[in-house]
Amino acid sequence: MRKSMKMATKRQMRMLPKVPKVPGFEFHALYVPATNVSGDFYDFIQINDHTIGLTMGDVSGHGIEAGIIMGMAKKAMQIYAKGRESPKDMLSVTNADLAQDLDGETFLSASYGVIDTSTRVLKFARAGHNPPYLVNPARTPAVTEVKPNGMVIGVDKTGQRFPAVMKEETIQLQTGDLFFQYTDGLVEAPDREKNEFGDERVKDLLLRNHSVSVIDLINLIEESVHSHLGSAPQEDDITLIAFKVM
After folding, report:
1. pLDDT tens for residues 162-218?
2. Which of 197, 185, 158, 139 is nearest to 35 (CA)?
3. Which domains, and CATH codes, for the chain?
């Protein structure tokens, strides 16, 4: 069993995608499982020569059972993203497929964004996932939660309510925009006194360190979380994706 767990960890880490390199944009990601096998995932999907899809997901539960669903969900979203530039459509098709195989007790929160790098337009939808932040001191307000309506994947087995509830938001990106996505393991990370890292701390870090590179920013957030945890164990997987418009 120990050998099998080590192999599962290695194979899951090999599934992590390469960070895209696109002129005018800077991307980076962080993936920190709480145990050997994670229920979190993220992906960068090249839809065509000027369009990139960003997926993020978090399967309910932990360990092997979450890892099994994670692999299935990541691949399904990767497949359904091809040829679809509507995040709402992709998530709706994914739900219609995966909900049939889930047991009614397991669900998946997810988000999907599509960036047209030629027009700098971002389309975004979320299936019950934590809303990302759009950060830019040149905007008013400087920090905005991007939270179109949606529901988690796996609850609607009929596939009828999901697309009716799901909304899609379109954002015209501008120079200096920082888009930051995360799983709940970040904001819910507790210290020894059970004080969570919290949304306000994340927003403050993003705004105060907006000018640094995306790599440095994510490294800084990782260091801040570990400092907050102290000697407390990491209880949940932590996954971050960010991109900046240069």
Report:
1. 999 999 999 999 999 999 999 999 999 999 999 999 999 999 999 999 999 999 999
2. 185
3. 2-245 (3.60.40.10)
